[in-house]
Design brief:
The protein is of the alpha+beta class. The chain has helices at residues 69-75, 79-86, 92-95, 100-106, 112-119, 138-141, 163-166, 220-230, 244-262, and strands at 8-11, 22-25, 41-44, 53-55, 61-64, 123-127, 133-137, 142-144, 147-148, 155-161, 169-176, 183-191, 198-203, 210-214. Strands 4-5-10-6-7 form a five-stranded antiparallel sheet. A four-stranded antiparallel sheet has the order 11-12-13-14, with helices on both faces. Helix 2 (79-86) packs antiparallel against helix 5 (112-119) and helix 8 crosses helix 9.
């Protein structure tokens, strides 16, 4: 889509002063998908040269905000990466342009990169225009449907996944109202091989990621009660892709399947 309010595109490497009407441009799959009447200038991140994926000391994995879905899919054999990438159900054109950072910053409940990074204890690194740096978990970065903890002019630089989370056993479940529809509920379970801890991450059915942790595999009743307590009625998402009651029902069903699998 033509953005007829945009009067300038500048390189992020030379960009110094943030002003009203600026917008970060990563892959642009969201920016160019609908009118952006408030945007006057695009700050292009495509030439920053950030390594898409970088293994850090100790085995942590840093994913640049500019890493594309296609690169993420090709670069690792971790099963959860492929499962979450495929949850996009998007064309190859989107896969090759859409970025991990863009998916997080859109903060849509069905954003599969949110599901992936929240389930693997991802930590966001945020750069402020004054040089300040903030770090906070993905599960806290996304605060609601379309809402995130991103201050004016702040940039999501990367998401770091800890080695211990990457070593956990995983189980993935996703459901849509239609065969090729947007996720109505997406549940990821992980289990730590060291201490047996079970973690569940609920996304798509909720307005923001919901994380549950159990020191050992809970009973079916304990799991259902924990989900009921952790997700108030207002947090179940409601749109044309699924009513709240259906999303709640499917989340409970998928969570129970994961509990059995990881037990």
């Amino acid at each position: 889509m033509d953005l007829n309010t945009v009067v300038e595109v500048c390189d992020a490497r030379a960009h110094e002063h943030w002003r009203p009407g600026d917008a970060w441009l990563g892959g642009g799959t969201y920016l160019f998908s609908e009118p952006q009447p408030r945007v006057r200038r695009l700050v292009d991140l495509s030439r920053t040269g950030w390594p898409p994926l970088q293994w850090l000391a100790g085995g942590d994995l840093e994913i640049a905000a500019t890493c594309t879905v296609a690169h993420l899919f090709r670069a690792t054999e971790h099963p959860l990466f492929g499962q979450c990438c495929n949850a996009f159900l998007a064309s190859f054109k989107i896969w090759n342009m859409a970025t991990v950072g863009g998916n997080l910053c859109n903060a849509l409940p069905a954003g599969p990169m949110i599901s992936l990074t929240a389930a693997l204890d991802g930590m966001c690194t945020l750069w402020a225009r004054d040089g300040g740096v903030r770090r906070l978990p993905v599960a806290e970065f996304v605060t609601g449907a379309g809402r995130k903890d991103l201050r004016e002019g702040e940039l999501l630089r990367s998401v770091t996944l800890p080695a211990r989370a990457l070593a956990r056993r995983t189980a993935f479940r996703q459901v849509s109202l239609y065969g090729l529809g947007r996720s109505g509920a997406l549940v990821i379970g992980t289990r730590d091989p060291r201490d047996g801890e079970l973690a569940l991450t609920l996304t798509a059915s909720t307005t923001h990621p919901v994380r549950l942790r159990f020191s050992a595999v809970p009973t079916a009743a304990t799991l259902a009660a924990a989900i009921d307590a952790a997700v108030p009625s207002a947090v179940w998402f409601d749109d044309i892709h699924g009513l709240p009651d259906w999303r709640c029902h499917m989340t409970l069903r998928l969570a129970e399947e994961i509990r059995v699998e990881l037990a």
